[in-house]
């Protein structure tokens, strides 16, 4: 039994002891190798090699390190990263792949630069590179395109000759920097300083200053300042054989200045945008004539906006030679180059340009949509020359061609174009139909807009939104310029009453589409006077929705320039529909015509609170357009309206503060007819009513009001009420009545609150009585407080005394004692 027990324990002992023995046999190198492979990286394998440079796994670790370093270089994907890798592993298994990557990246940089200099830089690094042949061919093309006289030119010396008026003789313009941006594309550069060039480019510039007179705060006779300069001149390119090419330029530059005393000192001016627009493009045109237009086609891919714009301009005007270059550029694998080449062809009024652009128009695929659209825009620029071609492709079976043709016809606003677009309005392809609708909207002609309105009014038209939006393009103030950078003036449509009347007739068709109806109303408001008569007629419609839209449109036209419109809104103030009346109230608000007072007064008694509030707003706004009381008294002096206005002043809701102030202001303008009602309000237990009455009585222009206010101020509960007393003083100041001088003088002398005393002082200044200076001077203290400053300002206003030196601090108490007799004779 013992033997069997012992033999039974042996396997367990082996299981426990064996792992310990195995673990004890693992070396540090094995352990580190497993760790490096567990989390492979450059750092892991570099760390392993540093710890075990001659170990069993050193060779394999070196290979893995090189592989991971290549991975890191590929992730960085920059010439520098790959170059660093090649320097460390010039003969390794990844070295050739790294060199190929460097070649590809450098070629990409050269292509992006699109210049002779870029290709030369590529060849300098990769004489036998994958793209060396392409680079040489592009450089040869650049050279081959040059005129014979400039074929061997590599350096061009720049000479600037400025003949500026003495006013701006120190102003400099960066002609050299602009030329330096263009030179690399033509395979030339400026020679080292002091060295002669193979050719010379001379800039001769004349400039005359603009000036303006400026006086600070409108005081004094004014000082002359230079605000800018008109610059013009010539570019002269001279070849080694003395062949001369010339180009003129003109533009404007600003003259930033500082002042020293009264003399302006112009400082160096930056190269202004107005100047940049002309000089670079004239320079590009000149260089294209001498060195060929192919470099300008390459420059179309430039990331420099000035270079690109100059290149397009020069290629537009380069004639057959430039057109040949542009034809090739249309096939560029750089989308920006092909797009800008199509743009430049828009300046070539030649059948060949139509043919080239037509090829772009018929290029299939979504990727070429931008090119098709750009080609369509350029065909539009060619105008009548392109119409025969567009007539043909307008019937093309391919929808994308018909769509692009519609876009092009939209830029040619002729009767022929309208006739060609008309059938496309029923195209079975929605995109083509929409393009035709949009195109008619771009015409902005009576014929095109009339056709759109007819379709908008068609009974069976399911979606009127696109038609309305297209008509909107012809409405003044509604349309956005399609190309804000265009040098062509924006087309406009002169609306007639007949055309506007046809548009008004669409109102009933939009009853179920209030958003479109509101948009149409806004358009008619913008059309203005031609739409007044048809809108007035629409106000009499049996359709509430039509009357609402018409009232909103008439009301949205701004200031009253039409008696017909004002009369119609007056009549509509009695409409049964509250929305119509609200639109009328809004339309009558904010206008300078006092004829709005009467209808607003009626609307102020409207049963709808919102209408009343809007009418009150309009009445308050009318105060700012005229100081006359007559119309307010005539229209608002009735007891029921006065009672309603006082009631508004009693409203306690915080949201009604503006309404309370407006009611007080209107009552004050009504004046004498409102005084009795205001005197009653002055005795109201409602504090808000009393506050409004104080303000209104101050503006009433009635002696009874002033007497009542002074009496009100003597009441014990008012004398202890700071906010009410301050309001009272302000109202007495607004009254301009000298009857309140003694009361205000007593307040200035006897009140304990500086706030109240300050209000009394300012009120004394408002009434303009020189006798008030006695009280004002007596109230001055030696402490120079804020109150003293206020009193001093009031005395200065009343006496109109200003010391010669504005910095002089006047002792007004002493000054008045010396000068009182001169003022109070």
Proportion of helical residues:
55-70%
- What is the count of β-strands? 6
Distance between the termini: 148 Å
Compute the average pLDDT: 86
Backbone CA Rg: 43 Å
Derived structural class: alpha+beta
Q: Into which percentage range does the β-strand content fall?
A: 5-15%
Q: Strand order of the main beta sheet, please? A: 1-2-3-4
Most strands sheet? 4 strands, mixed
Low-confidence stretches: 1-23, 215-220, 258-266
Counting DSSP H or I runs of 4 or more residues, the number of helices is 43
Report the principal-axis shape.
extended
What does this structure look like?
The protein is α+β, with helices and mostly antiparallel strands and 825 residues long. The chain is 60% helix and 7% strand. It has 43 helices and six strands. The strands form two sheets. It has a four-stranded mixed sheet, with helices on one face. A two-stranded antiparallel ribbon has the order 5-6. Strand 1, helix 9 and strand 2 form a beta-alpha-beta unit. Helix 2 packs antiparallel against helix 3 (42-51), helix 15 (351-361) packs antiparallel against helix 16 and helix 26 runs parallel beside helix 28. The longest helix has 24 residues, at 2-25. The chain is extended and about 110 Å long. Mean pLDDT is 86; it is low at 1-23, 215-220 and 258-266.
């Amino acid at each position: 039994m013992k033997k069997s027990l012992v033999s039974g324990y042996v396997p367990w002992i082996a299981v426990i002891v064996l792992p310990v023995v195995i673990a004890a046999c693992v070396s540090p190198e094995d352990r580190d190798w497993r760790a490096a492979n567990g989390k492979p990286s450059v750092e892991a394998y570099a760390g392993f090699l540093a710890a075990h440079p001659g170990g069993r796994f050193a060779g394999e670790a070196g290979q893995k390190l090189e592989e991971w370093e290549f991975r890191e270089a590929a992730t960085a994907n920059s010439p520098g990263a790959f170059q660093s890798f090649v320097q460390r592993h010039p003969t390794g298994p990844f070295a050739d792949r790294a060199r190929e990557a460097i070649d590809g990246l450098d070629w990409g940089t050269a292509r992006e630069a699109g210049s002779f200099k870029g290709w030369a830089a590529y060849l300098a690094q990769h004489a036998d590179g994958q793209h060396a042949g392409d680079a040489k061919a592009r450089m040869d093309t650049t050279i081959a395109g040059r005129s014979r006289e400039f074929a061997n030119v590599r350096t061009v010396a720049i000479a600037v000759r400025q003949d500026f008026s003495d006013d701006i003789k120190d102003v400099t313009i960066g002609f050299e920097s602009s030329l330096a941006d263009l030179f690399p594309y033509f395979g030339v550069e400026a020679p080292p300083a002091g060295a002669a060039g193979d050719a010379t480019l001379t800039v001769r510039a004349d400039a005359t200053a603009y000036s303006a007179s400026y006086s600070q705060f409108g005081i004094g006779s004014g000082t002359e300042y230079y605000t800018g300069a008109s610059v013009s001149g010539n570019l002269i390119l001279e070849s080694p054989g003395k062949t001369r090419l010339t180009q003129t330029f003109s533009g404007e530059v600003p003259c930033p200045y500082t002042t020293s005393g009264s003399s302006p000192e112009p400082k160096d001016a930056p190269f202004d945008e107005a100047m940049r627009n002309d000089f670079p493009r004239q320079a590009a045109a000149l260089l294209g004539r001498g060195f060929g237009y192919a470099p300008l086609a390459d420059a179309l891919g430039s990331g420099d906006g000035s270079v690109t714009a100059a290149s397009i301009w020069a290629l537009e005007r380069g004639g057959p030679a430039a057109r040949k270059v542009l034809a090739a550029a249309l096939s560029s694998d750089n989308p920006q180059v092909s797009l800008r080449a199509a743009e430049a062809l828009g300046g070539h009024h030649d059948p060949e340009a139509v043919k080239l652009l037509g090829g772009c128009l018929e290029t299939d695929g979504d990727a070429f949509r931008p090119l098709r659209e750009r080609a369509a825009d350029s065909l539009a620029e060619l105008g009548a020359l392109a119409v025969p071609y567009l007539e043909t492709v307008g019937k093309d079976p391919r929808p994308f061609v018909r769509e692009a043709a519609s876009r092009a016809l939209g830029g040619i606003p002729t009767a022929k174009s309208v006739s060609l677009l008309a059938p496309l309005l029923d195209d079975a392809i929605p995109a083509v139909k929409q393009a035709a609708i949009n195109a008619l909207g771009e015409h902005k002609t009576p014929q095109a807009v009339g056709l759109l309105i007819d379709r908008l009014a068609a009974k069976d038209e399911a979606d009127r939104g696109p038609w309305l939006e297209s008509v909107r393009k012809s409405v003044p103030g509604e349309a956005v310029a399609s190309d804000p950078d265009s040098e062509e003036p924006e087309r406009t449509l002169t609306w007639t009453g007949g055309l506007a009347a046809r548009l008004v007739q669409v109102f009933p068709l939009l009853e179920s589409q209030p958003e479109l109806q509101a948009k149409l109303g806004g358009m008619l408001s913008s059309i203005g006077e031609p739409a007044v008569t048809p809108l007035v007629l629409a106000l009499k419609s049996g359709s509430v929705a039509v009357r609402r839209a018409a009232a909103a449109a008439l009301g949205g036209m701004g200031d009253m320039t039409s008696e017909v419109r004002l009369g119609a809104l007056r009549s509509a103030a009695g409409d049964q529909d509250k929305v119509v009346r609200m639109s009328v109230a809004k339309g009558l608000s904010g206008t300078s015509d006092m004829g709005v007072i009467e209808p607003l007064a009626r609307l102020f008694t409207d049963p709808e609170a919102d209408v009343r509030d809007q009418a009150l707003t309009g009445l308050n706004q009318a105060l700012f357009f005229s100081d006359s009381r007559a119309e307010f008294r005539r229209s608002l002096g009735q007891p029921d309206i006065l009672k309603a206005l006082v009631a508004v002043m009693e409203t306690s809701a915080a949201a009604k503060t503006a309404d309370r102030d407006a009611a007080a202001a209107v009552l004050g303008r009504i004046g004498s007819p409102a005084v009795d009602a205001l005197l009653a309000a002055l005795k109201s237990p409602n504090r808000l009513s009393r506050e409004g009455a104080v303000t209104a009585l101050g503006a009433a222009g009635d002696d009874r009001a002033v007497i009542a206010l002074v009496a009100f101020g003597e009441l014990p509960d008012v004398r202890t009420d700071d906010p009410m007393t301050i309001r009272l003083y302000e109202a007495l100041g607004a009254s301009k009545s000298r009857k309140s001088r003694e009361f205000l003088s007593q307040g200035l002398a006897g009140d304990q609150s500086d706030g109240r005393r300050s209000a009394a002082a300012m009120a004394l200044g408002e009434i303009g009585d020189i006798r008030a200076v006695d009280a004002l001077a007596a109230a001055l203290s030696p402490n120079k407080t804020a109150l003293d400053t206020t009193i001093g300002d009031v005395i200065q206003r009343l006496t109109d005394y200003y010391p010669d030196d504005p910095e002089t601090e006047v002792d007004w108490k002493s000054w008045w004692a010396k000068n009182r007799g001169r003022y109070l004779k």
